[in-house]
Amino acid sequence: MAETGTIYLVGAGPGDPDLLTLRAARLLERAGLIVHDGLVDPSILALARPDATLVSVAKQRSKHTLPQEDINALLVREARAGRDVVRLKGGDPLIFGRGGEEAEAAQAAGVPVEIVPGISAANGAAAAAQIALTHRDASSIVSFVAGQCKGLKDQDWAGLAGKGRTLVIYMGVKTAPQIAEKLMADGLSPDMPIAVIENGARPEMRVLRGLLAGLPGLVEAERVKSPALIVIGDVTARDDARIAQIATEAAE
Fold first, then answer.
1. What's the number of CA atoms in the CB half-sphere (13 Å) around residue 105?
2. How many domains does the chain have?
3. What is the DSSP letter of 3?
4. CA within 13 Å, CB half, 132
5. Where is the secretion signal located (predicted)?
6. Kind and range of the H or E run holding 197
7. In the listed set 64, 87, 119, which residue is the last one of a domain according to the structure?
8. Is 37 a catalytic residue?
9. What percent of the chain has pLDDT above 90?
10. Is the pTM value of this prediction over 0.85?
């Protein structure tokens, strides 16, 4: 009987292969089987060894190549057959990546599992857009929210965004109208600055800025597509005059 392999839940980061951890890159180079999300950039998959088997389990809203239960079963089955399996996920496996579910399935089956963290979509996209998610003068709290969570209207988002806070919304393109309506109903000012980061940390990245009340119109007018993040808070609109003042003071 073949020795049981290991399931590696690996974060691919926001898209740029230069942002992979060394551990992630080394696992990709040696893995015989890579089960990957649809949003993993082709340049990262190109790091796999030439004879590796690549299996896409791409997920789109309401349309999955494989249901999550089948993905769990695939990982466990291949590991029990003696193969080391890299489960490659965009961003970080444990931030809206269902890595926790897959780790639990492996543990329940008695299969060794290792989690390799990645730069999250929020961290990578914000850095590429030069938006500081925290700033001494603007924000000391950051919250991550899934924009496609069940019962969106029933979620209590009061206090997640506002003065001194930053809210980052994943998977919110399709539900932008409901998100804006929900936040304003929970007391957030319609004039709160926002940014939409499309294809963060990739060559085709776009950063669109506006106000909360105009979020739905901005997404529609600019035809924003996933992957995209919505960042809400004063950090998205740092005062240009203040930046210019700092530069002047430094030059004196």
1. 20
2. 2
3. P
4. 12
5. none
6. strand 193-198
7. 119
8. yes
9. 80
10. yes
Identify whether the C-beta of residue 207 lies closer than 8 Å to the C-beta of residue 196. yes
List 16, 18, 59, 89, catalytic entry: 59
| 47: Cα within 13 Å, side-chain hemisphere | 24
In 5-67, where does DSSP find H-type helix? 22-30, 42-45
What value does the mean pLDDT take over residues 192-209? 96
In the numeric block, the tokens 């590796």 are attached to: 52
User: Of 92, 93, 148, 94, which Cα lies nearest the Cα of 124?
Assistant: 92
Percentage of the chain with pLDDT > 70? 89
For residue 210, the domain's CATH number is: 3.30.950.10
pLDDT at 76 over 70: yes
Of 16, 18, 37, 89, catalytic: 37
Dist CA 41 CA 111 (whole Å): 28
pLDDT of residue 201: 93
Extract the tokens encoding 98: 């269902």
Q: Is 249 among the domain residues?
A: no
Integer Cα distance of 169 and 122 in angstroms: 9
pLDDT of residue 1: 55
Cα 29 to its chain centre, rounded Å, is: 23
**Residue 59 a catalytic site member:** yes
Least confident of 126-135, 140-149, 188-197: 140-149
Domain range for 110: 7-119
95, 119, 143 - which closes a domain: 119
